[in-house]
Amino acid sequence: MIATLQLTHIPVAKAGMLIRKPVETVYEAFIDPSITTRFWFTKSSGRLEAGKRIRWDWEMYGVSSLVDVKLLEPGKRILIEWGVDEQLTTVEWIFSPRTSNSTFVSITNSGFIGEADSVVEQAMGSAAGFGLVLAGLKAYLEHGIELNLVADRFPDQLKPHSAQGTSSR
Q1: Cα dist. 92→82, 109, 110 in Å?
Q2: How far apart are CA 107 and CA 35, in angstroms?
Q3: Which pLDDT score is estimated for 161?
């Protein structure tokens, strides 16, 4: 017999990584789509600005997300809401300088809704996804390598587009 579990807390997705670059460089990598498209999404409608709504596209999967930029604290914090349809979640980046040339990035995604199994699946998927994003960021900023981690995560779901395997900027 399989026991039914009840959630006592709504799951929160967390990921973190030390990036051996100054905090300003690491922060800018998430603000400026000409950098972010090298390790995460393939296209953006613009640079992150507080109060602005932008669109991020993952052309290789044929999906996009509207992003409402709630707060930017240069070199310290980014806060957005994003999602599909009415299922918005909150994502917060915290940038903590460790030395003059290293930054710890913490990403927290919260606000998942739905049935318990679905909420757990969403949080686990988000944590795994943001882990890949941070690994891709690290490889790109520290070594100049584009690993294509996000594109290679679900190879059976790839859609043809004009820039398959490369970044559209």
Answers
A1: 11, 7, 9
A2: 18
A3: 60
Quick one: which of 160, 134, 161 has its CA closest to 149? 134
Query: For residues 61-74, b (16+ Cβ closer than 10 Å) or e, as one string?
Result: beebeebebeebee
Helix axes 116-143, 23-31, angle to 10 degrees: 120
- pTM of this prediction? 0.88
Decide if 81 contacts 89 (C-beta within 8 A): yes
Q: What is the DSSP string of 80-99?
A: EEEEETTEEEEEEEEEEEEE
Residue of 16, 3, 6, 20 lying closest to 142 (CA atoms): 20
Q: Token pair 């602005």 is at which residue?
A: 52
Give CA–CA dist 92/160, Å, rounded.
Answer: 31
pLDDT score at 40 = 96
- pLDDT at position 98 is 97
For domain 13-153, give the CATH number: 3.30.530.20
Phi, psi of 66 (to 5 degrees): -85, 135
- Beta strands at 87-99 and 102-110: parallel, antiparallel or unpaired: antiparallel
* Averaged pLDDT in 10-residue chunks for the chain of 169 residues: 70 97 98 97 97 96 95 98 87 97 98 92 96 98 96 85 45
Q: Please tell me the predicted confidence (pLDDT) of residue 3.
A: 64
